[in-house]
Batch of 3 targets.
Target 1
Amino acid sequence: MAKITAAEIAAARKRGAEEPSIVSARFIRATRTLEVTFGHGVKIAVPVALIQDFSMLERAPTLAELAEVQVSGAGTSLYWPRLDLGLWGAGLLQGIFGTKAWMREVARGMGAIKSPAKAAASRENGRKGGRPRKHPATPAHA
């Protein structure tokens, strides 16, 4: 069995103190949002639809299952016992809700949202003939 030194224990305690710990978490049914409060005073709210782990379940979680969130790992993570699903708190705090590919797809979808103002502007541009054509650059030494 490996022996752990006092220096290794001290270094682990220092790393643990530097990482923000989760104080509380709750699921807000009305907005389907996960609200997480950290020990240093930061509070974040993330729509569960943005969190990849929930979309990868065999079936969509019920509101009751989402409401059973627990703080675990001495404040480092969140756990949903009925879903057997855990999330790392520091990742949520950094805005990491899934893999890079997942985050790219989420961002791509957000840019595709059309508001009434965007639709009206598009129609107005269409009436004017659309976007102006780009003219190729003329050579400097013609």
Target 2
Amino acid sequence: MNMMLRRLSRAAAAGLVAAAALTAAAHSAEAADTLGSAAAGQGRYFGTAVAAGHLGEADYTATLDREFGSVTPENEMKWDATEPSRGTFTFTSADRIVDHAQSRGMDVRGHTLVWHSQLPSWVGTLGASDLRTAMKDHISGLMGHYKGEIHSWDVVNEAFQDGGSGARRSSPFQDKLGDGFIEEAFRAARAADPAAKLCYNDYNTDGVNAKSTAVYNMVKDFTSRGVPIDCVGFQSHFNSNSPVPSDYRQNLQRFADLGVDVQITELDIEGSGSAQAADYTKVVQACLAVERCTGMTVWGVTDKYSWRSGGTPLLFDGNYAEKPAYDAVLSALGGSGGPGEPGGPGEGTATCTATYTRTADWNGGYNGEVTVTAGSEPIGSWTATVTLPARQSVSALWNGTAAFNGNVMTVRPSWNGALAAGASTTFGFTVTKNGSDAAPAVGACTAS
């Protein structure tokens, strides 16, 4: 099944309640700022890791849908979950997460293509030639299944050792293919999905140290030679023994200065109360201070399902109550008010335009795409309205977050709010016709 047909069938399978769920979540977001909407107002995304097995829990999905604009499958896209035997792929659990995210206008980060851990046993038995082929086939098969649907991929994960040496980690890929396996993986990933952002992801690289410098030197080499790398992910797992480093922002900035985006990909901070809140504030402020820090992902929705649950490291406790750290993050994101209100970014003289195109059509529905273009001044965020003809309903949305008032859909950015003067971005949506083939009307675009 080709990618477009698969997406359409999945949009239908996501359930007849998808549009209603979008509406409910968006109306909740209108009542008070949320992490996702506040971050979008800063031109960033704010996401979370998601486990497919928890999507049946009402409080879990309600918190996810209300607060976050991006999701990362926690384990469902790793090699052992997607290709347990060579050449045989299974996507059921990962599809469940992607379907859920798309039906609610969330972006998806892919995690992860090549990693030394959570490998099926057959990978380690291969010789060098077979391993190289298997690695490229895995990248092609996994990325091909989701082509055009994943915002960023962690192409290679945790390939460097801890400690002061800056050496590569022993793994089947490193030991049999040598240093060049990372470059080969990135080139294979670019071929598999040219539109996706390609990231290197690691931990204990948050400050300037031997490990982060080894990664920095690799990225510098890649950018100088045209190896396709778009972003670097910083896992940012902090506790009292590994606190937020004083040079965290400086480290993010030096990578950004190489011409790549930086993303905080697996954030959690053990602790509680005001101390934990203060540390979360430091992280958010560091990201906001670096123009190319495009977003943040906390590694889980609730403390009770965290891999470090004993350290209560997340923004919601085990009962899904907002912790002081939640309030601190929302405040740091400017979440006390929307545009033009106290705490919001305010209205300026910046302008934007929005134009509509129907990109696909079938008997029961169609896909629409809106292109938002900044005027002669750069913008930090935008808002566009789409008025649907009577009877039509939206079943999926991507690259934006939506609020509904009757048949009027108001769309704000997820990760793609900030635009340079004259630059453009797009958001798309799937519509169920319900007997009406009329085109929607795109209203004025508002910039801030």
Target 3
Amino acid sequence: MTTATLAERYISATIRSLKPETQDDVRAELEASIADAVEARVEQGEAPAEAERAVLTGLGDPDVLAAGYADRPLHLIGPKYYLTWWRLLKLLLWIVPICAVGGITLGLLLSGAGVGETIGQAVSVGLQVIVHLSFWTTLVFVVLERTGADTGMKWDVDQLPEVQEDGAGRSELIASLVFLGIAAVAVVWDSLRGFFPTGGEPIPILDPQLWPWWISALFALIVLEAVFAIVLFRLRRWTTTMAVLNTVLALAFAAWVLVLLLRGELVNPEFLAFVADAGGDGFAAGDAGAADNGGIFRILAVLLGFGVGAGVVWDIIDGWRKARRAGRTELV
């Protein structure tokens, strides 16, 4: 039995994973190129065995060489689909985990679960969603790349994003001041005139016991928000300091609402009684049917608290996002 040379073993290892119809051509090409390279080294004074070893070492791993002949990628996500994969994954990670965590949190709160249980379940679900989303999205693109499928997605200039504003223009200032002014007027109007016809004395929605201290704190927050909007307009850009201040103001507002909501002191008890009486027997029956979850009013309180919390979280994230983008623009 003749012992195969290093060159023969290298060529065999290279062509074994290629299609049968291409193996002969690749074998002939490699035999010729290896022989020429070895001969050139021998002419320069190297021993034949050392020359052969040096040439094969220079060619590298035969599996890598075979992948080049077969045009087969040796990576999970190559340049062809990388940007499409990354953009889709970022979009999904912004939407799906937030929706999943928000949904499970809202469901647990409505079912009467404790704060600790709710946080634990929400974190667990969020991590599972992120892991599964990343794995399956990546797997899909691996299959697309390995099979050579065409997604049909082609870039053109119409896909260029619009120039994003950082929320520091005159229109944003006016909108903020108008909104804050309406909020302040609404609080005063609710106390003096009410928003619902009662056939008698007006019944405010907010608990009258909040006057003067709690309402004064709310007005102080409104004034601070107005000052913040004016300063932001004067700066013409978001900064880290402005993002921190925005976070503090958002958390202060959330604390004002949620503390009163949890203590049952936000909404006027007379207003709740009026709503219950106006709803009649059907409303009372519905409230009794939801007794295991604390009644309809408790469910509405949870929904209100969840909505306020979600709005505050988004406001904080949006402020930091704008500050980060402004910082990058400044560096450029």
